[in-house]
Design a protein that fits this description.
Number of domains: 2
CATH architecture of the largest domain: Alpha-Beta Barrel
Distance between the termini: 34 Å
Structural class: alpha/beta
Strand content: 15-25%
Number of strands: 7
Shape: globular
Helix content: 25-40%
């Protein structure tokens, strides 16, 4: 079976750019010269994943904090110019920059959500004091319930499934690696 490659030259440039972009990201986000990974644990959390998605585009996923400030916005522009898409997962307490391509908000109990639009809202369920219905008026394309991990994982999964079945707007999201016993 042949694999259709929409733009092999752009894909080659993106692959070649990954190591340089990781170093560039560390420097722009305040992490030394980015020459190697030694001692850059904090910076490594800032830009954690650069990979090819099913659509054969390279995706950059950023976690740990908000993407803001002049140097970081320059990184956003540089990544877009290189053909990358930018995705963040946030608790939603700080607004995301409008140049982010994919916004996933995972609200936490007792935290005010100010990022009220994006591609997905992922709620850990159940959480004391958090009713999924409170989030349904927000402007998200997808709504997910993810069973809370821990000693009650089986009961939490059952509760999340029941909620999704009773409220079809919500879909179940699971961290498959946890069910398989992987770290």
């Amino acid at each position: 079976m042949a694999v259709h490659r929409k733009n092999p030259e752009a894909e080659r440039r993106q692959c070649a750019a990954v190591p340089r972009l990781r170093r560039f990201a560390r420097v722009l986000m305040g992490g030394g010269d980015g020459a190697d990974d030694a001692g850059d644990a904090d910076d490594a959390e800032l830009l954690v994943d650069v990979n090819f998605g099913k659509d054969r585009r390279v995706h950059v996923v950023r976690t740990s904090g908000v993407l803001g400030g002049g140097r970081r916005l320059f990184l956003l522009d540089a990544l877009h110019a290189a053909g990358f898409t930018i995705a963040i997962e946030t608790n939603g307490t700080i607004p995301a920059h409008p140049g982010i391509d994919w916004v996933c908000v995972s609200p936490k109990a007792q935290a005010a959500v100010v990022q009220t639009r994006g591609q997905e809202l992922k709620l850990v369920y159940p959480q004391v004091g958090v009713d999924p219905a409170l989030f349904e008026s927000l402007d998200f394309e997808r709504f997910y319930l993810q069973p809370m991990d821990g000693p009650d994982q089986a009961a939490n999964t059952k509760a999340a499934v029941a909620y999704c079945l009773a409220h079809p707007r919500w879909r179940l999201s699971v961290q498959t690696h946890k069910y398989l016993g992987l770290p």
